[in-house]
Write a structure and sequence with these properties.
There is one protein chain. The chain is mainly alpha-helical. The chain has one domain: YggX-like, CATH 1.10.3880. Helix content is about 50%, strand content about 10%. The chain is built from 3 helices and 2 strands; from the N terminus they run E-E-H-H-H. A two-stranded antiparallel ribbon has the order 1-2. Helix 2 (about 35-55) packs across helix 3 (about 60-75). The N and C termini lie far apart (about 40 Å).
Amino acid sequence: MSRTVQCVKLGREADGLDRPTYPGDLGRRIYDHVSKEAWQGWLKHQTMLINEYRLTPIEAKDRKFLEAEMEKYFFGEGSARPDQFKPQA
């Protein structure tokens, strides 16, 4: 039986994550308030951020940037696309 959450990103009840996907307090908040669907949206957004800003997730400063963007994406004003980002047709 899957668990449901009131998803902060989608604004509705949806299937919750099967397990925490990120460590610490932020990971607990994500597990408690973010749906699988919204998490998949973050993964796509994160990939775009990594590619556009040429981030290296093993670098501490890049991880810190991504964590701040994740916080904004789910619980803040949202994580914006880079100005130079142009989606492929």
